[in-house]
Amino acid sequence: MVNKNSFSPSRVALAISASLLCLSSAAMASESDKITELEERLNALEIELIEAKDAANDIDRVKFSSGDPSPEFISKDGQSTMQFTGRIQLDYVNADPFYTGSKLEYEDGLNDVSFRRIRFGVEGYFSNTWKYSLEFDFDGISEVEVKDANVNYRGFDNSEIKIGFQKFGFGMEATGSSSQLAFLERASTDTFSAERAVGASWLYKGDGYNFTTGYGVTALINDDDLNEKQDVVNARFTMTPIKNSDHLLHIGASGLYTKNNSNMEETRYRARPNTKVTGRIIDTGKFNTASTQHYGIEAAYQHRNFLLQAEYMMAKTDDLFVKGDNMGSATFNAGYAQAIYTLTGESWRYGAKKGTFKTVKPENAVSAGGYGAWEIAARIDVADFNDTDAEIYGGKKTDYVIGLNWYIENNLKAQFNYVHTQADYEESYTDINGVEMYEQDGNIFQARLQYAF
Asked: Per the database entry, which stretches of residues form a coiled coil (predicted)?
């Protein structure tokens, strides 16, 4: 007979196992809490390390440059950025009556206030080797145009490749930004600059020189004309043989080749009298040509706060047809010379990367209690769109421009221009009084307030 109260090894083993299991669970729970606590401490230390690294590198997530109202957003690792860009140009123009267009039709004088440009965009970097740009232009009426939509690869030493919708470099003034002009409008040489196109370009910056070349197609982006109407090939070389604190000498040359496709062979050269709101007072009218070649030379000399600048350009057409007859080729040309003197002593800034000049920044802005920067400027602008051998009589004009610029702040300026224009024609036109005329002249007063960032 077995005694129920007697010692049982199985019961003792069971009790020991249960005790060990409880202790093990408690130990595991304690270790899990410790691991969680360590992870939280590691995360906190990682955040402190990133913040310390940012502080050491002086990296701000949102940064404002001196005098720039547009914030620059910077990624956590400092590899990518985004910044808003824009320019608003409000113009006042008072112009005499002119005869404009290829038929020289009468156009009333005007007294006009309008927006010349309203542009907004974004630009920045990503992965520290790519730069991007997207910009739109609002004409103040209805249309919205794409001005830039491209990316730049900057992973090479001293060079970069740009891909997308872009402006191809040709000439000094046309390559620069419209917000950096000494006068309200570019000179007549801008007639020969390339339209924006979809393609690729390569820029190389050496020691005291730079070179750019590219290929593109004028595609259906900003107009409702035929798509892919032209192939565009450009090249531009500039150098600064003299560059020191007191003197700078810039010289350069450009070339541009455009090939029309079989569905779009129309070409036209025309120019306004250094203003935007009037019509073109010289105009070749449309003619058919297979391709065009444009050549340009440029030079600038700067001595402290005095800047001289000049350009000359020529256009040559191939397989020219006028009224169904093959006239072989035709040539047209334009050029300007201008001088700028900054009365308050500031100097125009030279951008060696693109071989262009940027306007001065006032040393004593109005917001700091000063009077800003003041400068005077003068320009002679000549364009000849006649080729009698090819039976094209577009006319010849000469514009005399005097300007006064007031740089109120780094990003705010006022400009005043007086333009006197003279035009001569190989063929006569009939004015509103029934008189046969071979020339015309007129005056234009215009002013601009520009805010750019």
From this structure: 28-62
Same domain (yes/no): 398, 409: yes
- One domain, residues 53 and 185: no
Judge residue 318's burial from the number of C-beta atoms within 10 Å of its C-beta, 0-12 exposed, 13-18 middle, 19 or more buried: middle
The 8-class DSSP code of residue 101 comes to T
Q: Could you tell me which residues are beta bridge partners of residue 241?
A: none
Cα–Cα distance list, 346 to 126, 374, 407 (Å) = 35, 9, 11
| Parent domain of 53 | 31-60
Helix (H) or strand (E) holding 170: none
Of 411, 304, 307, give the one whose Cα is nearest residue 365.
411
| Same domain membership, residue 49 and residue 186 | no
What does the alpha-carbon distance between residue 307 and residue 305 come to, in Å, rounded to a whole number?
7
Phi, psi of 51 (to 5 degrees): -65, -40
Mean pLDDT, rounded, of the chain: 87
Residue 24: inside a domain, yes or no? no
Same domain, 152 and 208: yes
Same domain, 220 and 270: yes
90 plus 153 within the same structural domain: yes
Query: Alpha-carbon dihedral of residues 158, 164, 170, 175, nearest 10 degrees?
Result: -80
- As to burial, measured by CB atoms within 10 angstroms (0-12 exposed, 13-18 middle, 19+ buried), residue 146 is middle
pLDDT tens digit string along 270-321? 999 999 999 999 999 999 888 999 999 999 999 999 999 999 999 999 877 7
CATH number of the domain within which 79 lies: 2.40.160.10
User: Would residue 275 count as lying in a domain?
Assistant: yes
Q: Identify the H or E element spanning 216.
A: strand 209-217
Q: Which among 218, 261, 257, 216 has a CA at the least distance from the CA of 236?
A: 257
